[in-house]
Each structure stands twice: as C-alpha cells, then as structure tokens.
Amino acid sequence: MSPGVSVLLADDDAVVRGGLRALLDAEPGITVAGEAATGTEAVREARRSAPDVVLMDVRMPGRDGVWATGEIVRWPEPRPRVLILTTFDLDDIVEEALAAGADGFLLKRSTPEQLVDGIRVVGAGDALVAPQVTRRLLATLARRRPPDRDRLALPDPLTEREAQVLRALAEGLSNAEIAGVFHLSIETVRTHLKRILTKLSVRDRTQAVVWAYRTGFLER
Question: What is the pTM of this model?
Fold first, then answer.
C-alpha cells in the first residue's frame, strides 16, 4: 500500500466537505488535494491536482457525480481512482453510477474508520464495494428486470475457482479478504480477477458484480 494518499472531495454540501476534510486531515498519510461542488469542478480539479482518489458524491448540481465518474475512469493510466459515497437512494442515478465504472462504493453512513480504510484500499489500486451496497443495492437493481440468462453462456466459461472469486466479489470482499478465504496469494487473486474481467467482457470488478446479478449467476 502506498504510504500516502491524496484525496479530492467532490460534494455540493460545503458542510459535508468540511467534515470530511477535518476527518482526513487528522489521518496520517492522507492529504486533501482539493474540493469540488459540481461534477464539472470535480473533473477540472482532478486534472489540476491529480489526486490518488476522488471521493465522489452522486448528486450534484449541473454535471453530476455519475457524469464526472464516467469522464475520469476513461482517462489513461495512471488516473485518479473514484470512490463513490452514496446515500443509498436506490434510484436510477445510483444504477448509472454503478455502470459508470467507479472503483469503489461506500455509504454515507459508513463509520469514519470504514471511510478511511476505503480510501486507503482504493488509493492502493484495489477496489471496494461496501457489502451493504453489494447485497442490497445490486440485488434490488437486479429485481427490477428479469435476469438476462442468455449472457451466462460465455464463449470461454469461468473455471470453478473463477466462479468462486466472482461470488466473493459479489459479497463485497476485497482482494486481501478473498486471498484469505481461499488461501491464495494476492497476486493469484489479481490474476483470477483479470481472467474474469476478460471472460465477461467487462471493464472492472464493479461491472463484473453487476453482470453476476443481472444474469442470475448468483442464483445458480
């Protein structure tokens, strides 16, 4: 894990930004690179300050956090990682945020410790989806439409181990937690993850989890 993580705070509520800044300023190894109140400002400030992590609110005036996330994740590497901080509204805009390809999702009611740990995990290049978001939000989204079971027939099927790793991802486990559960090295987990993404034709682990819910994979 990198010894230092710089964070851009993107939230239209100045009080929320102030509280987040106070929390993060007190954490060793974490610095606040800047603030933004709109999606447009978030993209501009991310280009200017090149933070390791953008802590992104979903709802902001004008260009929102979904748009800003989609812009940032398309940048060439190394790019800032995007950690969505959501109120868990269960509406269409949150579904769009999932599809935009953010590197992590946490709830605004997360504890300070969970938030700081999430920033460090995402800043280190891993990805994080809060278990509450994974189990409740994605399951709710999946129930809004019938499973697209035709997509389960992959040209190159998942191996048994890859299927186990995908199920663990859907439970919200990090790479380190998956390694512990299956007694694997972190590098082996990352190798499995790369192969899963390739076989599913998705960009990142979040989209892999969405695929698992929307195809009914987790019901098998």
Answer: 0.72
